[in-house]
Design goal:
196 residues, mainly alpha
Length: 196
C-alpha cells in the first residue's frame, strides 16, 4: 500500500513538472515569436524607407499584429520590384494608409488586418484570407480577389473598385464604388497620395 502511495505521488509530481515545463516552453515560444515579428517589422520598414532598394522580399514573413501604417510598399521599377508578401502572416496587422499597389499577396493571412485607406490597386490577393479584415475606403481597382476568402470582411459600403477588380465567384461586392481623394502626411520623408 505504501508503495502505491509513493508511486501516485511520483506520478503527480511528474505531471506537475511536465505542466511547468510546457508552460515555460509556451512562454519562450511567445517571446521568440514576438522578437521575430519585431525583427521582421524593422526589416520591412527599412526596405520601405530606402528608395534605393528595389527588391522587396517579404515572402512568408511573420508580421502578426505588426504596425505597418502608411508604409510605401508600392512597385519599384516594374513588377520585379513589387512587394512580395505571398504566404506572409499579416493577421491582425495594421496597414492603414499603406501603399500596397501591385503587391503579391497570394495566400497571405490578412485575417483581422486593418486595411483602411490602403492602396491595393492591381494587388494580387489570390487565395488570401481576408476574414474580418477592414477594407473601409481601401482602393481595390484592378485588384485580383478571385479566390480570396472575403467572409465577414468589412467594407462598410465604402470601398473603391472598378470593372478591372476581380471578385470571388458569387461574391456580391459593396453596392457602389466610393472613390475620394485622401492625403496622408505622416512622419515619413514622403507624402502618400491616393485617389479614391
Amino acid at each position: 500500500q505504501q508503495q502505491e502511495i509513493e508511486n501516485q505521488r511520483a506520478i503527480q509530481q511528474q505531471e506537475i513538472e511536465n505542466q511547468r515545463a510546457t508552460q515555460q516552453q509556451e512562454i519562450e515560444n511567445q517571446r521568440a515569436q514576438h522578437q521575430e515579428v519585431l525583427e521582421n517589422t524593422r526589416f520591412v520598414r527599412e526596405v520601405a524607407l530606402n528608395p534605393d532598394v528595389r527588391d522587396q522580399p517579404f515572402i512568408g514573413l511573420d508580421l502578426r499584429e505588426a504596425d505597418l501604417n502608411l508604409l510605401d510598399l508600392s512597385c519599384r521599377g516594374g513588377p520585379d520590384g513589387c512587394a512580395k508578401l505571398a504566404l506572409a502572416d499579416l493577421s491582425g496587422a495594421s496597414l492603414s494608409g499603406a501603399n500596397l499597389s501591385g503587391a503579391y499577396l497570394m495566400r497571405t493571412n490578412l485575417r483581422g488586418a486593418n486595411l483602411r485607406f490602403a492602396d491595393l490597386r492591381g494587388a494580387d490577393l489570390t487565395n488570401a484570407d481576408l476574414t474580418h479584415a477592414d477594407l473601409f475606403l481601401a482602393d481595390l481597382r484592378g485588384a485580383v480577389l478571385r479566390t480570396a476568402d472575403l467572409s465577414k470582411t468589412r467594407f462598410l459600403g465604402k470601398t473603391c473598385y472598378n470593372e478591372a477588380t476581380t471578385w470571388p465567384a458569387g461574391f456580391q461586392p459593396p453596392h457602389s464604388p466610393t472613390c475620394h481623394r485622401v492625403f496622408f502626411r505622416g512622419p515619413f520623408p514622403y507624402t502618400l497620395e491616393y485617389l479614391y
